[in-house]
Amino acid sequence: MPLRVSRTPTIRHYVMTAPTFFSVEYAINPWMDPTTPVDTHRALDQWDALRRTYKELGHTVELVEPVAGLPDMVYAANGGVLVNGKAVVARFAHPQRAAESDAYAEWMSRHGYPPVRTEHVNEGQGDFLAAGRILLGGHGFRTDIRAHREIARAVGMPVVSLRLVDPRFYHLDTALTVLDDSTVAYYPPAFDAPSCHRLREVFPDALEVADADAHVLGLNAVSDGYHVVLPAAATGFAAQLRAAGFRPVGVDLSELLKGGGSVKCCTLEVHS
């Protein structure tokens, strides 16, 4: 039998925004259907359960005040990139979300992270995930690949560019989870062939997740290096994580899935 890898959690710093004004009023990704009813109270309960999960795991959670008229602001990960002591605020592709940038920029400034703004579209940690001393950068649907160079320069870290090809996986964080500095899980059909090759090259121990788990946004997960908070419906991925020495922690964010997001989308991580 293979040796079980010992995993070590580290305390993390997360930023979240309550879904006080959450609704599906428009469709800017394939998950959104404005004719499907949304239960805001249920969304709030599910979001609060996620927040409490992080707190119970010992992590710091800070809150950004939600703004009326910005129903997608709950997806805090898209607000920007906070890494290496630097901040870049999002420049959204769709006008419906554009004003979220100002709210997150204000939070960054108040907390000692003067934000850089990019010339080209970038959708924050939706498309930029830190893995050790590199950033994995998604492009193809939202973030403009030209923003990869801007962000690499702003934060002083190299960006490995990965092309997304399936519109259901419109952000990198819907198709890939960083589990620790040297391990990721991903869904190969979401990427083009060169990107899959690059991932296998950089992460030879990567977990490849099956259709059933990817299609419930199971990879929209958050890891502290040992605990992996993920959508409860991704049971196959949870089994893979246990076999690899991680501890999966399932949460139900089914109401927020109606907007095309889950655990990671609701979580902006501050990487020191």
From TrEMBL:
Signal peptide residues on this chain, from the entry's feature table: none
Protein source organism: Mycolicibacterium litorale
GO biological process, one term: L-arginine deiminase pathway
Chain segments annotated as transmembrane: none
UniProt GO MF annotations: arginine deiminase activity
Classification lineage: Bacteria, Bacillati, Actinomycetota, Actinomycetes, Mycobacteriales
SUPFAM superfamilies: Pentein
Highest taxon in the source lineage: Bacteria
Ranges in coiled-coil conformation: none
Pfam families: DDAH_eukar
Name by which UniProt lists this protein: Amidinotransferase
